[in-house]
Queue: 2 jobs
Job 1
Amino acid sequence: MKSAAQNFRLSAALRFAAATALGAVALVSASAHAGTVSTEPEESTVNSIPAPKPSWFFVQRGFVLPGTAIYDSATGKYVAQIETATLGDLAIDPNGKYYYSAETHWTRRIHGTRQDYISVYDSTTLKFEGDIDIPGRILVGGREHNFIVSDDGKTGYIYNFSPVSSVNIVDFAKRKFVKSFELPGCADLILNPGVGLAALCSDGSLAAIDLTGGKVDITRTDPFFSATTDPIFDNVQYDKAKGQVVMMSYTGLVYTAKLGAKPTVGAPFSLQEAAGLRKAEAKPLDLNWYPGGGQPTALHRASGHLFVLMHAGEYWTHKDGASEIWDVDLAARKVVKRIAVEGHPTVLNVTQEASPKLIVVAEGEGQGAGSGFAGTAQVIDPATGEIKHSIKDAGSGLVQLAN
Amino acid sequence: MRFAGKMRSGVKTAAMLGAVAAASMLILARGGVHAAPAIPDPHSVMADPDQARIDYVENCGGCHGVAGDTVPAHLPELAGRVGWFMCTPEARAYLIRLPNVAHSRIKDNAELADMMNYVVFVLGKGTAPVGTAPFTADEVARERKLALTNKNLTAERLRLANQLVQQCHAPASIRQLYITEKPGTAQ
């Protein structure tokens, strides 16, 4: 904890909250009378917000714009903004008490001493509570699996790539960095209950990372995908209740792995075949429907439905925005619905409510794909395909949820 | 396109080899750290030196730099140093077992052997002991199956570097990631 920095950050956070929490700020001040100088100090108050709700979604403003906006999918209304940094990563405390922002800064903007840390914010006041210094982190941002929190909320895992591949472990209860360990040849951290972590590796395997002993033990499954010709999207879907992870390859192969000390990967199925179409090939110029975007899949865990951003195109167009969302019943291995979408969204998530809502975000117009400009977010009812809410300039980055 | 690219890089490789020879003579003159510059004729250690260099630039240059000298950074400087690792069987195997090498997109073992010979003999600038046998496809096929996936590579590198200093009289600075690195700052 750094107290000098804390004071500065605290007031900055308050100012920011005051400026941005729409309608949440009640400025209590007497209006100045002409000719008289009021000596009354101006008083202002700041509202608080509830702990995160299942209907809320968190949109990173953009790839290069700081801040994460909170919206409520029930109302389409803005709730507040969390002060995440450019190329930062947000993690949400599963107990709903804190927001954690992993950030990197140099003492002199782009040179000087590099500082990596996690800023802790109270979830109801958005007050800055302090920093936890860490030795480093991958400077990417906009990915879901570089900063994850254990299911009990006690431990944070931050992927680092210096470019030595490693993981930092942080104790959130003590607000202290614990240790780091090297993870050669793997990335994309996934929780692995009772074991520690899992990760995807460059030889096409899934690693099990045993953190229960003094020495970190890393074992790998047999390779099951090709990181060269048909990689797996980094936004794999972790399902604690089922103890599994659902993964999507660039050509639309859906893999499910049972987590544990020795993870097992089941035989994949083809998304296109699940929709009654020809299976896509990892071959140049193969025309088909492909998954694509920065966050192309989302799992509604209770129902076992996987939603996927799909576009018609060639092999190796995995960043292209979607013209449809496919609703996949994982147990039946069938695409049960194809929902048309506007604006070529590249980012997708689904709320975990009993009647889920899809959230899609398309990057802003003007500078082309990858510009990171804020675009429109839409809340879609997957049952009907109806657009419930459309929010302009919402963001372009990741959409995260509290649960 | 590919053809033109190859022609151009062929010219550069030749120019570079000249520079390499000059640089290693400088090293000799400065400290006599090595008995003799051992830069074999590229064609004696690579089937296709141009392709080997192209493969290195494309697959490795992003981190290590096109000349193997991206420092200061948290990774080892290859230029004028990496050949030392050919001195013991363990250190030699380490070069192929590194995940970035073992799990390279280059699946063809002969092509990967060529590229690693480019790294060791060309970028290494005469640091490989005289008479060092080049990597072969068979050796690469065998060692890349033993990728170092459950180890702290920083510690493993230091262990091997100590071996090189003790057994091969490599300069003590081989323990560091690059010559000007302050000891103990590598993560």
Job 2
Amino acid sequence: MKTWTALGVGLLGLVATGAQAQTIYPISRAEILAGSKFDFKVEFPGAPAQGAVKVTINGQDPAIALGQSAKFVEKEDGGDLSAYWIRGAQISKPGAYIVEASLGDKKATVKWEVFGTPQRKAKNVILFVGDGLSVPHRTAARILSKGIVEGKYNGELAMDEMPHMALVSTSGTDSVVTDSANAMSAYTTGHKSCVNALGVYCAKNKSTLDHPKVETIGELAKRRNGGMSVGVVSNSEIEDATPAGMVSHTRRRADFNDIVKMFYDVKPDVILGGGSPNFLAKSTPGSKRTDEDDYIKKFEADGYKFVSTKQEMQAAAKAGSSKVLGLFNTGNIDGALDLKILKKGTVSKFPDQPDLVEQTKAALDVLSKNPNGFMLMVESARIDKYAHSLDAERTIYDTIMLDNAVKAAKDFVANRDDTLIIVVGDHAHPVSIIGTYDDDTPGNQLRDKLGTYAEAKYPNYPAPNADGYPEKVDVSRRLAFVFGSYPDYCDLGRPYMNGENVPAVKAADGKTYVANEEYCKDPMAARRTGNLPLDANSGVHSADDLVLTAMGPGSEMFKARVDNTYVFRVMATALGLGQ
Amino acid sequence: MTDHPHLSLTRRRFSIGAALALFASPARAAEWISFDTLYKSFGVRGFEFADRIVALKGQEVSLTGYMAPPLRAESTFFVLTREPLAICPFCQSDADWPVDIVVIYLKAETPLVSAGAKIIVSGRLEVGSWTDPDSGFVSQIRIADASYRRV
Ligand SMILES: [Zn+2]
């Protein structure tokens, strides 16, 4: 009993000290690219005066290691903490760095690894991010676009046919399950951070734009190797988390208007996506800005060719434009199933949108003219968005579209060995293929139609067209691609032919979500009681590891299990960005 | 889908619409307008309102649409959309709401029980950029001093 009490007190003591200890950014076990820029911050709780604190790096004044002296902010943001800052710090010498911060008898210690890079191996890097791309997405895309007979596929996905592979873990500093902002930030900066954050550590700053920054690969590529070209391509709004991760520093991914400015500050040579309203001056009908800045005009004034249709984009690439800004939709660009087969979504409003494949080809045309090489990021964004909305067919078709874009990149490197290609998700979704739904199975409930094990047989999608898409998706025996997290909803077990699934709608209380009764009217609909909290309106991400595939110079570094931050390390090493 | 930066809206008891209602002209037969005919052009560089819409500025109009889920159950302020909207446009990143919305300022604070329902709104048409002083919500077209009924 005595021992138990002592242990309890001991634990409490630890907890109390832990809660009050000073916090150092970058955090412990950070891997920092030699010469990359980062903000060094120490937060001292209790708002002590400068004279009361001591900060050292490898036992010396941080100014020696970081090349500039610190700024001390007492009671930062009027709060109960003082901050020690060296913004825009750089360390050029690789090695281990021990950072200590003391206040009275309280001392915090973190250890950084600063890594250099050997001789540059790759001229170019193409990073394909399938947002939410999970292993079942690859399986389903392969079944639909290649076909399978007697257990063997009739062909390989371009993304599967690569010599190197790794298992990638995605958890952040704050949580086991992460989001696309934090996940992309790990790829583009090499630092772990928290949900909703892009290119910053999550400190206690009040302004979302003041948190300690770490440099992105978009910024690094621009200022290293004599100035590489940078491309950011997505079918989401270009301000959305994944494309924003190439250029942005904000604690809050929803800062779309600030993110547009960050794009403008970094100036990627190719910017292709949706989301035009945040580029338009507030007084323009359709704008979502809160100021009078017209960013389309600003980019044009800086020599960018602005394009808003596929035809214009392809003409700009053909005409030899070296800088292209393409915004093809006010929201997200329509996904492959709507764009190619069903013509739903916003296809009638925006009839000449490019798909991800055409965007990738145009980007490669423009970027490959730079003799210093390029860093291109291509995101298939709606794999994630359709997984959130529990829309199986749309999430699968957008995986096929990603694969076609990968194929275009492989065609680009066919006669060269100077380009590293990586294909990876950013976080997983809890999705799985559990069999098939067969309309011809007797029964009047959806579960009667589900074939499992031997009864599943194979689905009867028609052979895919030349682009790998089956042109009929509402077939009589289709994949049962199911979702492990969901709000209350009515499951149809078949494709949403009239537009993306809207599983749940807001309840009359204005807070919680209830099943969208529109679908519940269907005689075969299965009403599912949600397994998520009541304020969820769609499925959520999962913490499952991802499969990464890669080819080209530098790809041999991928093996076994790695953290998502390691993807940055491989790209930076291949490009020799730490020279 | 994980970001939920809740805007803090302060309770708005007297809308501009309500104040202006004091000077409104006597009711006339409302002109019918529709989401399909609001714009002359609609593209990524913004949109232009149709000539008829501009001409109807300040007049009584009726418009059919869907009430977007409101921020709270009782308000004078909500968003009318062309299609039913699953999400509360104020509750999530502004990335999520459509561009072609019409903001409604009701004559009086009303329990907004019809979220997601098809409704007909009648009131005075306002066209031009306007930033709601309480929410910071920017709108280009509004129906003020409005009332609504379910279809
Ligand atoms: Zn997501």
